[in-house]
Amino acid sequence: ELQPAGGPSYAEWRDGIAEAMALARGSAGDVLVVSSGGTISTAIGHVLGVAPPVTIELNMQMRNSAVSQV
Q1: Whole-angstrom distance, CA of residue 32 vs CA of residue 13
Q2: What pLDDT is attached to residue 19?
Q3: What is the pLDDT of residues 23-68, one digit of tens each?
Q4: CA 11 – CA 1 distance, rounded (Å)
Q5: CA 23 → CA 26, 53, 58, distances in Å?
Q6: For residues 19-46, b (16+ Cβ closer than 10 Å) or e, as one string?
């Protein structure tokens, strides 16, 4: 698995996104999240329960930009 020097592994990064989504879902009000297309596609992949290669394909379809309502 690729891992940037000093950075999280893909699994750690994906898990961090899932944790952030859980915090947002537990909020009493509206939540605004500003992020990159890679993070958004990873979040959508998590919701859909798809494998990392499918998540990467989602990111390529978004061209690193998106407006999403989850």
Answers
A1: 20
A2: 95
A3: 998 999 888 888 888 888 889 899 999 998 888 888 887 765 656 6
A4: 9
A5: 5, 26, 23
A6: eebeeeeeeeeeeeeeeebbbbbbbbbb
Residue 49's CB is within 10 A of a number of other CB atoms, namely 7
Confidence of residue 2 (pLDDT cuts 50, 70, 90): low
Length of the chain: 70
Name the helix (H) or strand (E) containing 17. helix 10-25
Quote the CA–CA distance of 43 and 26 in Å, as a whole number.
16
Q: What is the reported pLDDT for 35?
A: 83
Here the tokens at position 9 are 């592994």
Q: What is the DSSP string of 34-63?
A: ---HHHHHHHHHHHHT--HHHHHHHHHHHT
Joined tokens for residue 47: 């919701």
